[in-house]
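User: Okay, second chain of the day. Same drill as before: sequence in, structure tokens out.
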Amino acid sequence: MRSRTTKQKLTQALVFLILMVLALSFLYPIFYMGINSFKTKIEYRKGNFAMPQSLDFTNYNLLIRNFKILDAFGNTFIIAIFSVLISLIIAIFASYAFAKLKFRGRMFVYLFIISTMFIPAQVTMIPLYYLMSDVHLNNTLTSVIITYVATSLPGTILLMTTSFSGISDEMIEAATIDGAGYFKVVRKIVIPMGMAAIAINIIFNFLGASNDLFTPMILIQKMEKRTVMVALASLMNSRGGDPPYQLAGLTFSALPPLIVYIVFSKFIVKGITVGSIK
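Assistant: Same drill. Structure tokens below.
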């Protein structure tokens, strides 16, 4: 009995050590960007692994005042929030239908949607560009939002359908007998039970929309409508000899995804807890 307890403690200590190493490997680049973003070029060249002598916000002030980074953040937030919201609404109802409703051609439609995940984005970008030009949506945030909704839906539906399939049919039948309609069942049962999958999709889709460079660079040419990633690409090309200034921009761009993860990670745990006691 004692040997088993000792073995469990050693296993737990090993798992904890591995997780700590992984956490440090992920957090260190953010820490490196953060400390060097407060340095001047001279201070950076003296030692880029040393702590800054003082918190100098000059690089951030220049990003806001001269580079208009907040405008790019505004465009990115509009694109990310609307694309995540629209894809989430569509995916919740579609996934519930694929998971729990019986209708002719259900598996064919489901497999057809999932199969679009395997089409490379590079193949569709030129036809998409001409399509957006034909409907006069080029150089608009709407074109990027539509693209993100279309490309994120298959993966979102796949994950949510798998999650919703685990919901007890008896619970849905009982709610239906009690007079709950379609939308009430989705709101009161499906969404709480599938909150873990919903939170994961919010995080992944927000990260995908806010970190993508390729799509907005192709569809948007106007400088005032550029996203953060397009702005940072321009920053890297124009200020190659100023690493602290570049790192300030990278640190700036890393903050929104971190905030979204911190906010929605608790919903993942809560959703798993609800699903475990259903």
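The longest helix spans residues 2-37.

User: Thanks, on to the next one.
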